[in-house]
Amino acid sequence: MEAEEEYRRRERVALVAIVVLASVAVASLLVALSYYCYIRNKVSRLAKNRASEPRFILNPLFGSKGNFQERVDLETKTDRPNPQVTTTSEKGLQVFTFKQLYSATSGFSKSNVVGHGGFGSVYRGVLSDGRKVAIKLMDQAGKQGEEEFKVEVEMLSRLRSPYLLALLGYCSDSNHKVLVYEFMANGGLQEHLYPVSGSNSLSIRLDWETRLRIALEAAKGLEYLHEHVNPPVIHRDFKSSNILLDRNFHAKVSDFGLAKLGSDKAGGHVSTRVLGTQGYVAPEYALTGHLTTKSDVYSYGVVLLELLTGRVPVDMKRPPGEGVLVSWALPRLTDREQVVQIMDPALEGQYSMKEVIQVAAIAAMCVQPEADYRPLMADVVQSLVPLVKTHRLSSKVGNCPSFNATKSPTTQDLGRSSVRN
Ligand SMILES: Nc1ncnc2c1ncn2[C@@H]1O[C@H](COP(=O)(O)OP(=O)(O)O)[C@@H](O)[C@H]1O
Ligand SMILES: [Mg+2]
């Protein structure tokens, strides 16, 4: 009897143990299953995000204190334009129909032409919402033009700086490639430094103070491309006609059709076909095709020389030895007596010697043949800031001792008298 009782007790204990073990097993199975579902969900969400994730990291200038990084994808294809209505591409650019741009420029009329370049003609235009724009119409079909169009759209839809010309939108159908930019009322810098045949030259010379500020703003544009974007962007066609001036003569860098992503390795380069504009191309790039941000620094130095001397980079009609601006100016830049002789006569001595020597020294460093010894654009910006600041302060107190009595047009005078309508 007792044995039977003992047997039953053991049986009950075994049953309880089996039930407990079975419930633990079921509970573990459930936990494992729900963990599996959770992980699967997370992985698929990550994969989805990665598909729209960037291979190119920008560090925008606007409010970019700290290390906020905007992520963008350089390899996304350009959107197909909608032929019926104006749409906005996923990159935030407006997609226009050819008809809309045709009517914005009164049928691309000659009277609206503001300039011509390698890509085609540039027209002044007014959009249906009243915005004034510059419309660049590709006039030669071909691989190079199409490539420049694509690079321009892809680069400019991602770069954001007050020192770069804003691309507002584009039209891309089977017959037309058109780019729509903010309108820069005073056109290209070169028009104000020397008359250029074929352009609507405004022929008003820039004063020293305005030249210094343009030099600083253009330097900030390149500094952004080289040092605030990762990997860096090399402009490859930096020149005075690609520095555009707004109605108050503030400068913005334009034309990214030839731009290239640089090497992200310190001291690295990318190898490319040599493209650019004669007189601005760095010697090592012309010789080897090795492109670095220092190639842009060289081109920037050439623009500084244009600002100082008022001369075009190459003019073989000049007396022997003076045809190539860099070769003529470089030996004179570091000599106090000679540097005055190369200054643009249109400046009529408005500058102080101290400033000229400083700007000439920056130009000399930028155009030196050894690329490694050229400064970074951040160094150039730092050197120019105090010069521009000094001018702002001196004009505030109405005292500008370095200026001559002969008054050349000030920024405001120019703004009123020469702004394009
Ligand atoms: N956004 C703009 N606003 C006003 N004028 C412009 C604009 N873009 C270009 N231009 C004018 O058109 C000219 C030709 O420009 P572009 O086609 O870029 O030629 P380039 O090859 O000389 O840079 C410039 O020098 C400038 O006078
Ligand atoms: Mg241009």
What does this structure look like?
There is one protein chain. The protein is α+β, with helices and mostly antiparallel strands and 421 residues long. It folds into two domains: 56-182, Phosphorylase Kinase, domain 1 (2-Layer Sandwich); 189-403, Transferase(Phosphotransferase), domain 1, CATH 1.10.510. The chain is 42% helix and 13% strand. It has helices spanning 2-51, 98-104, 143-156, 190-193, 208-227, 283-288, 293-309, 325-333, 336-342, 353-366, 377-396, 411-418; strands at 56-58, 70-72, 87-88, 94-95, 113-116, 120-126, 132-138, 167-172, 177-182, 229-230, 233-234, 243-245, 251-253, 260-261, 270-271, 290-291. It has a seven-stranded mixed beta sheet, sandwiched between helices. It has a three-stranded antiparallel beta sheet with strand order 2-1-10. Strands 11-14 form a two-stranded antiparallel ribbon. A hairpin with a 5-residue loop joins strand 12 (243-245) and strand 13 (251-253). The N and C termini lie far apart (117 Å). Residues 114-119, 122, 134, 136, 165, 181, 183-184, 187-188, 191, 199, 241-242, 244, 254-255 line the site of adenosine-5'-diphosphate.
Topology:
Layout: H1 2-51, E1 56-58, E2 70-72, E3 87-88, E4 94-95, H2 98-104, E5 113-116, E6 120-126, E7 132-138, H3 143-156, E8 167-172, E9 177-182, H4 190-193, H5 208-227, E10 229-230, E11 233-234, E12 243-245, E13 251-253, E14 260-261, E15 270-271, H6 283-288, E16 290-291, H7 293-309, H8 325-333, H9 336-342, H10 353-366, H11 377-396, H12 411-418
Parallel strand pairs: 4-8
Antiparallel strand pairs: 1-2, 1-10, 3-4, 5-6, 6-7, 7-9, 8-9, 11-14, 12-13, 15-16
Helix pairs in contact: 5-7, 5-11, 7-10, 10-11
The chain binds adenosine-5'-diphosphate (ADP) and magnesium ion.
